Amino acid sequence: MKAYLTNGTIDFLIKLAKKYPAVHFHFMNGPSNDVAYYEGTDQKIFQAGREYDVIVQSGDIAETGYVVMNNIPVIDEGRPLFEDNFKKRQKEVDSQPGFQAFRLLKPISSNTYIVFTQWDSAESYERWKNSEGFQKAHAETKPPAYFADRPFVTTYSMIERD
């Protein structure tokens, strides 16, 4: 399955939804930008968007909630190890209170993966982040050798459509 992301003003993004009514868009608002996200097969709608392969997924993306995207640049040689590490430990987050959805998004034309998690609230995410399970899953003291650059996190609130 493919996933697609683009940034823009919410007014512009909603126009896309009206132009493509058969596509189920998810709209998100962050501190510095708005985002449209959709999943599907091959229908590329965004002219300046980003395309990903969804290689691990669980849960259904809800219309309400809090989204955390860990953006992780990975060198080409490190991709198989990085993906395997997530496939092994991904289920740890599924049983957490407030968890809604997970996607590991593999970039098509860049080196930055996105670890997409959705929670029912920012508080649920913070509880997970402060949990023993999170500490165990992120126990490495230094970044792995396969990181191409420092990872960064972006957060969003889902925007409900009328």
UniProtKB/TrEMBL annotation:
Annotated organism of origin: Ornithinibacillus hominis
Stated name of the protein: Antibiotic biosynthesis monooxygenase
Location of the ABM domain: 66-156
InterPro entries reported for this sequence: ABM_dom, Dimeric_a/b-barrel, Heme-degrading_MO
Keyword terms: Monooxygenase, Oxidoreductase
GO MF, one annotated term: monooxygenase activity
Signal peptide feature range: none
